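A brief tutorial aside. Many learners find it easier to grasp structure tokens once they have seen a single protein encoded end to end. The record that follows does exactly this for GRF-type domain-containing protein. Read the sequence first, then the structure, and try to relate runs of similar tokens to stretches of the chain.
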Amino acid sequence: MEGGLRRVATHMGEMEEPIAILICGCGVPAHLRTSWSNDNPGRRFFGCKNHGSLVYQPCRFFSWFDPPMPPHAKVVLLGLLKRIRANEVVELDEIEILE
């Protein structure tokens, strides 16, 4: 990837994003996505929009954008995600009770 990074303001503060766009093996621009897996929570990566597609030929293009997260940060983030998911379940249960 050429072009480097730029800092942009988001609703969650500032973050870096690529200036250039990666092109995958399919010839389409790769999308910058965020992983929410237990192994890489919050870590951004480039992935083809055709990855896992049932319509187009599946593409396996993948490249990490962010460096690996320190182990302690991963534990903290996973704990916060667990709390958020638990609150979402409680809210859904409350909505079902009201209906």
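Self-check: The mean pLDDT is 76. If you spotted this yourself, you are ready for the next section.
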